[in-house]
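Quick check before the chapter quiz. The format below is the same one you will see on the exam, so make sure you can read both the input and the output lines.
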Amino acid sequence: MELPGQQLYATHASSRLDYMLNLDIKRPPACQRLTGIFCVIGKSCSDIETLEKMISVGMNVAVINTTFGTRDENIEMIKMVREATKNYSEVMRKNCPVAVAINLAGRKIRTGHISDTYGTHVDLKEGEVVRLTSDETYKDRCSPYTLYVDFGGFVQQMKRGDRVLLDNERIELRVEVISTTTMTCRIERGGLLGSQKDVFIPNVVFDMPNFTDNDRLDIEMAVRQQVDIIVAPFVHNSSPVKELKSILGPKGKKIFIISEIKSLEGYRNFEEILEVSSGVIVCRQELGTDVQPKKLILAQKNLIARANKALFTPLLGHVLRQCCRLGAVKRYRHQRDDNNRNKRFNVVSYVRSVWFALTRVKSSLINSAVVRV
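Here is the expected output.
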C-alpha cells in the first residue's frame, strides 16, 4: 500500500528527467518531518494549554534548563509536559511521544545580581572601564563599574589581553589589569546587562569541576523523575560524560547523554566524546567564537562528517539564528510583551515558524535543531 505523501511512481523513473516529469503535485505532503525540534521551555510556556499547542505545531523534545527556576519548579514543569503529551495523544487518538530533557548548568560562569539602585539592567558603554571580581561582597551589588563573577578561580586563570564575552556574546570586554581577586577590563562592545548573565572566555579552558553540587542534585532529580535525556554542557573531552554516567548509576543507565561541543578543545577531542555519548550538540555560537566565525562552517562540516563516520547524526544548535536573519522567525526572548496571552501566542507561533524555517536547512546529515522559547 502506498503511504501518503510519497512519490513512489516517480521513484521508478529511469532517469532524473523522467523522475521530475512524474512528480505528482496532487499527492498530499510528506507524512513525516525529518528534522526534530528541541524546545527549551521557559516561563512564557509554563502551562499545559500552551505546551499542547507547541506539541501540535512540531515540538519533539522539551528541554528544561536547570540554571533557571527552582528544583520544585522544574519538577512541576516535567509533570506539565507529560500531562500535555498525554492530553494531545488522546485528542489525536494515537501515541504522540515528547521526550523530556534536562540541561545541566555545568561549568557555566555567570555574573551576579544587579544592585537595586540600578534597577534590572546596567548600561555598559563602549570605551569605558569595568571591573570583574570574584569577591562575594559584590554578588548582589553589580553596577556599571563593578561586576561579580561566580567562579572563585576566574581571575587567577586569566591573562592580560584575553577577551571576555557577556550575555550570549552581546557585550565584549578586553582584560587590561589583573590583581588578586579583580581584573580591570575595557568595554569594546557595550550594551545593557541584566542579572545572572553568562560569561564566556574564548580559547580558555578553566580548571574547575565538571559538575557542581547543584548539578549533582539536579541529576538525582532527573533520575527520580525518569527523564529521557540529560544534556551535558561544556564537554571538552570524555571525562565529564564518564563522570556523569557514574553519578547516574544503575538507576539512570537508560537516560541518554547528549554532549554539547562549545570549544576548540571539544572539537579536537570529538572522537573520544562520541565514544561515550548518546548524541552531540554542535553549539555554533560558542564554537564560532573559539575557532573564528570565518572558519565556523568548515569546523561544523568537519564535525558533522566525523559524527556520521562514527554512525552518529549530530544535533545542530543555534542554526535557528540564521533562520531569524533570513526573516523566517524572530527570537522570542527579545520581545518584551507583558500580556500573558500574547506571550503564549507568540511562543506557539514561533515554534510553528521554526517548523517551516527548518525547510531552509539543506543538510540531510543533521537530524535536530534547538530552539529557545
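If your answer matched, good. The first helix runs from residue 8 to 11.
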